[in-house]
Amino acid sequence: MNRAAFKPGPWGWLVIFALAALLPLLKPGGYVLDIGINIMIWAMLAYGLNVMLGYSGLLSLAHAGFFGIGAYAVGILTLKAHWSFWLALPAGVLISALGGLLLGLVAFRTRGDAFAIFTLGVGVILQLVINKWDALTGGNEGLNGVPPATSLLGIDFSKGANFYYVALAALALTVLVVARTRGSVFGRSLVAIRGGEDLARSAGIDVYTHKLRALMLSTAIAGLAGGVYAAYVGFLGSSVTGPVTTFTVLLYLLVGGVGTLAGPLLGTALMYGLTQSLKGLQDYQYIVFGPLLVLLVMFVPQGLAGLWDRAQARRVAARTERTVDHA
Amino acid sequence: MPEAAPEPVLEVRDLGIHFGGLHAVRDVTASVPAGQITAIIGPNGAGKSTFFNLISGFYQPTSGSIRFLGEDITRLKTHQVVARGIARTFQTTTIYKELSVLDNAMIGHRVRTRAGLLDALLRTGRERQDEQGSRAGAMRALERVGLASQAGRPAGALTQEGQKRVGIAMALASDPRLLLLDEPAAGMNPEETVSLMGLIRELVAGGLTVALVEHKMSLVMGLADRILVLHHGQKIAQGTPAEVSRDPTVIEAYLGGHAHGGQMGQPGQAGGSHA
Fold first, then answer.
1. How far apart are CA B79 and CA B173, in angstroms?
2. In this predicted model, what pLDDT tens digit does every residue of A200-241 receive, in sequence order?
3. Do B58 and A201 touch (CB under 8 A)?
4. With contacts defined as CB-CB under 8 Å, which chain B residues touch A181?
5. What's the rounded Cα separation, in Å, for the pair A141 and B107?
6. Which of A82, A296, B198, B231 has the maximum number of C-beta atoms within 10 A of its C-beta?
7. Mean pLDDT for the stretch of residues A117-132
8. Where are the domains positioned within chain A?
9. CB B77 within 8 A of CB B57
């Protein structure tokens, strides 16, 4: 069954998140926490992309735009409308999901490469709108002084270490949502669509509706990542909402493993960590980066998590092959 | 052969579609009687597969109407057609080779379940119910085609015939009244073909109505209760195998200008069909 894609399994995930939750107790420097929070934010965006590319087989390149919609929704609602972060965040997620619905209504008239190109265009337009709509988004100046997360249940989440837990909870929710989707009746239909749209259609799957729901889930996750980003960074500029961000996160996803549950986190942690540690080299970092990517694409095209899944699948296949041969 | 044909499950009237100037199917009026096997034959390019694509909602006809069990289904989308009870398989073994046999059948059962994204996220009762229902429905379908013991294997690891059966199981899992088989025996050796014919007979004995497109005349003549002959997208004959094989228009179509296009009593050119 599809369970192979669930590695490291529910208990494995619990251990991973428990360990991550212990990190602030070690009183690390602000730099380590910052890396951790950033990894979690970008991993969420990678999960959003993975719902489309990995589970539905559709390359949507507008995702940084939806990250921006979530981020600016939270930024505007908390800064200008003085909403609580805890209300603004779900509102941002909802707006991103609705945006995904609108995109899907038009974009799903196209298929394959045309869909990718269309969504890329939408991504560019979203960034332009954010950049030019001065009255709402602050335009080129950006949105300065987005308030940090407010207290909830008597806990002050504005400080670095405490906000780390906000990001961790958002990431955990994302992984849970994606895992549940993947293992569901709905998720199996997405796998069918990824495997062949025409076959899925003739098998009786309402392809259009399924793709629409998947896109909404995917942009909602992107919006969640954006909302957390807004409260964390405190400043929003349009540059982060453009296709460059989409492609960066797409790279994280490809390295980690498209269509796997662990891939987005794995790839983001590795690549973001690497980018940060190579920052001292400035432009020369690409001398390290480039060949590394080429090697990855050549030898591990299915990504790091895919490597694990494939080995697992081979073991299972070998075992069933043996039992069947004996039968 | 009973003279009075049973109630038709499917009736098409003046059905046609053209792609640009090409009339792939033109003014076809025909019916598929319940509980029988109807074969659709014709030389290569006669519009047989297009005819199936029209019935299953894959193509929208440019003229005519399709009625299924008395209901007009002409404008329905494919998934709605499947929900009404028409399932199909493809010419080639089009299945999910990388997924398990069971998963393939479960995908075919999707049309009988309602659980959506919210059910998945909230693990609702409907989600659990539908998951169990899918599993049970898929296993029933696999039993009907004799693949229950192979449920856990990757579908691509099965033989050609096994993969054909997976495709049929996927169609059966949607609980159809009418099963459309597009060249079920393509790429099969004689023993496999005989075994497949046995399966089709069993399914019909169980109450299913079958319509199939086929080149292998041995299969058509041995299996079909009724035959519909298409030529250049038009119906040129419909009747029992005996009637059709005596029909001068049919003989003309097969032997006349198209002697190279798959003769009566002989298999057509392998892999040459792109109707």
1. 14
2. 999 999 999 999 999 999 999 999 999 999 999 988 988 889
3. yes
4. 117, 120-121
5. 51
6. B231
7. 92
8. 8-252
9. yes
- B202 inside domain: no
CA–CA gap between residue A217 and residue A48 (Å, rounded): 7
Q: How many CB atoms lie within 10 A of CB B189?
A: 11
List C-alpha distances in Å: B98 to A78, A169, A293, B40, B160: 48, 34, 27, 32, 15
* Count of all residues that appear for chain B in the document: 275
User: How many domains would you assign to chain B?
Assistant: 1
If one counts every other C-beta atom within 10 angstroms of the C-beta of residue B177, the result is: 17
CB nearest to A204's CB, from B100, B120, B174? B174
CB pair distance less than 8 Å for B107 and A205: yes
How sure is the predictor about B169, in pLDDT bands with cuts at 50, 70 and 90?
Answer: very high
- Min distance B108 CA to chain A CA atoms (Å): 5
User: What's the rounded Cα separation, in Å, for the pair A277 and A265?
Assistant: 18
Residue of A187, A195, A324 with shortest CB distance to B99: A195
Token pair 């073994």 in the structure block, residue: B93
CA A281/CA A288 separation, integer angstroms:
10
**Has residue B274 been placed in a domain?**
no
- Contact present, B134 and B109 (Cβ < 8 Å): yes
- Whether B65 is in a domain gets the answer yes
What's the ipTM?
Answer: 0.83
Domain encompassing residue B24: 6-85+211-262
CATH code of the domain covering residue B70: 3.40.50.300
Q: What per-residue confidence (pLDDT) applies to B262?
A: 44
All residues of chain B having their beta carbon less than 8 Å from the beta carbon of residue A177 are 121
**In 10 A of CB B21, how many CB atoms?**
5
Interface residue of B58, B117, B128, B174 to substitute, partner A, most A CBs within 10 Å: B117
Integer Cα distance of A75 and A226 in angstroms = 10
Chain A contact present for B130, CB below 8 A: yes
Report in angstroms the alpha-carbon separations of A10 from A16, A45, A67, A73, A175.
10, 21, 27, 33, 10
The rounded distance, in Å, linking the Cα atoms of A228 and A226 is: 5
In a domain, B166, yes or no: no
Pull the structure tokens for residue A40: 């979690």
Interface test with A, best of B58, B89, B100, B110 (most A CBs within 10 A): B110
According to CATH, the topology of domain A8-252 is ABC transporter involved in vitamin B12 uptake, BtuC (1.10.3470)
Q: Is-contact B103 A4, C-beta < 8 A?
A: no
Please spell the DSSP secondary structure of B11-35, one letter per residue.
EEEEEEEEETTEEEEEEEEEEEETT
pLDDT for residue B269 is more than 70: no
Q: How far apart are CA B77 and CA B86, in angstroms?
A: 12
* Mutation site for B-interface testing, chosen from A47, A175, A186, A202 by largest number of B Cβ within 10 Å: A202
Question: In A, what residues contact B, Cβ < 8 A?
Answer: 1-2, 177, 180-181, 183-189, 191-192, 195-196, 198-207, 213-214, 216-217, 317, 320-321, 324, 327
Q: Are A238 and A129 in contact (CB under 8 A)?
A: no
Dump the DSSP string for B220-248: HHHH-SEEEEEETTEEEEEE-HHHHHH-H
Cα Rg of chain B, angstroms: 19
